[in-house]
Amino acid sequence: MLAIGRTLMCTLKLLLLDEPSLGLAPMLVRRLFEILKELREEFSLTILLVEQNAEAALRFANRGLVLAQGQIMLDGPAHSLIDNEEVRKIYLGKKKQTI
User: Fold this and answer.
1) Are strands 14-18 and 46-50 parallel, antiparallel or unpaired?
2) Is residue 47 within 8 Å of 37, Cβ to Cβ?
3) Beta strand 46-50 pairing with 63-68
4) Could you give the CA distance from residue 70 to residue 51 in angstroms, rounded to a whole number?
5) Which H, E and C letters describe the chain, residue by residue?
6) Which of 25, 42, 50, 64 could form a disulfide with 78 if both were Cys (CB 3.0 to 4.6 A apart)?
7) Does the pLDDT at position 3 exceed 80?
8) What does pTM read for this prediction?
9) Nearest to 38 by CA among 58, 65, 8, 78
């Protein structure tokens, strides 16, 4: 969080983040992504995010890329990736709930 704060002291157009949720409690992960969303909207900031927490990342992102062994396997709008059954099974560990 300190690194993000220090970075925001500069005039930014692009923020690169590598695993910002690593080691954080679930409540802090939710808050982190809320703050990033506010920053993105308030400052028209582009955020390039690398994140193992695929569900949190795809819920946050406008666009997503799914990598496997350094190769792009899927890409597209984040909402389509989070609803993709293959992505859900492999990266999110669950099937889509049907109600």
Assistant:
1) parallel
2) no
3) unpaired
4) 14
5) CHHHHHHHCCCCCEEEEECCCCCCCHHHHHHHHHHHHHHHHHCCCEEEEECCCHHHHHHHCCEEEEEECCEEEEEEEHHHHHCCHHHHHHHHCCCCCCC
6) 64
7) no
8) 0.78
9) 8
Amino acid at site 65: L
At 16, is the pLDDT very low, low, confident or very high (cuts 50, 70, 90)? Answer: very high
Q: What is the pLDDT of residues 54-74, one digit of tens each?
A: 889 999 999 999 888 888 888
Residue 48's contacts (CB-CB under 8 Å, 6 or more residues apart) are 14, 15, 16, 17
Residue corresponding to tokens 């308030």: 42
Place of tokens 């802090």: 28
Residue 66 corresponds to which tokens in the numbers above?
Answer: 């799914």
